Amino acid sequence: MKTFKFLKNKYNVELLIDIGTYKDIPNYFFESELHNTDFYELVFFSKGNGYLELDQQRIEISDNTVLFISPFQKRRWFLDKSKVECHFLFFQDSFLSSFFSDKLFSYRLQFFYNKTRPLCLKVNNGFFSQLASLNQELLHEIKTFRSDSEHIIRALLYFMLIRLNRAYSEHYLLSSETENNSIAFMFKEILQSKVRKTRNIDYYAQQLGISRVTLNKCVKKQFGVTVSEMANEFLLFEIKSVLSYTKLNINEISYLLHFSHANHLTRFFKAQTGISPKEFRNAYQNGSSVI
User: Which of 19, 72, 92, 96 has a CA 20 to 30 Å removed from the CA of 267?
Assistant: First the structure.
């Protein structure tokens, strides 16, 4: 699978953000072959057609649509790029997290690493115009880079991400709070990296130095689900990903995801989806399981 790498020195200075259209970023393609990137992406479609298959989601690309893509999310594009108009905004996590001394920043945003909600937002003309103006300011600052430009670029990006988080959270009935409840965001970060190895809730509580009850209260307040429900969402996502993008059999997947027996994985998957792993894989291969 092809991975697009972030070009840090494109502007003759190490800058962990990039923005533009095809004219500015000619090496970025809407490829139909499975691929990913090692950076965060926001794609703003003023005109769209076709669809994107993004980590088991099928996202219709229409006018005034914003896409949110996290690093290493697998995707395939099915559109005619000659009939779309859009801006790309790419950045690496350290561009913001180091500046704000907050390694959890990207986990505070509801649209990154979300396993259950659509990774897109259709906005009205007024808001899209505001986003387009911010993109133009960012592009101008990058292309006319000066000694203080990085501060302006970070401020503009931060402002845009918070505005988008508010809009996304309101649309999908989620909490837009980003400054409090750090325990919930820390859990989200750990779960993202550890769910393939363990679903033991006591383990996560111990890692965070709190009780299981406190962890559950914080996660429920921020994400609207219990700790167990969120762990199940992340685990189910991992199983679907392996079923969709590898040829591993059920025994191999069970070993990879630390299930003690293959039938335990099958039981879990069927309880969550209503179908067996084999039925899911067959449906995906026939083009009918991506939703």
Answer: 72
- Long-range (24+ apart) CB contacts under 8 A made by 9-13 are 11/142, 11/143, 11/145, 13/145
Tokens of 181: 């409840």
Tens-digit pLDDT profile for residues 149-186: 888 998 999 899 999 999 999 999 887 766 667 888 88
- C-alpha 221/C-alpha 187 separation (Å) is 13
> Do 207 and 200 meet the contact criterion of CB atoms below 8 Å apart?
no
Backbone angles phi, psi at 207, to 5 degrees: -60, -30
Contact assessment for residue 8 and residue 15, using Cβ atoms and an 8 Å cutoff: yes
The dihedral over CA atoms of 104, 127, 37, 198, expressed in degrees to the nearest 10, equals 40
Task: Give residue 180's pLDDT.
Answer: 67
The closest alpha carbon to 70, from 109, 107, 112, 32, belongs to 112
Q: Are 211 and 205 within 8 A, CB to CB?
A: yes
How many other CB atoms sit within 10 Å of the CB of residue 246? 12
Decide if 77 contacts 2 (C-beta within 8 A): no
d(CA 259, CA 31) in angstroms, rounded, equals 34
Rounded mean pLDDT, 211-240: 91
Is pTM, for the whole model, over 0.85? no
Q: Is 163 left (phi over 0), alpha (psi -120 to 50) or beta?
A: alpha
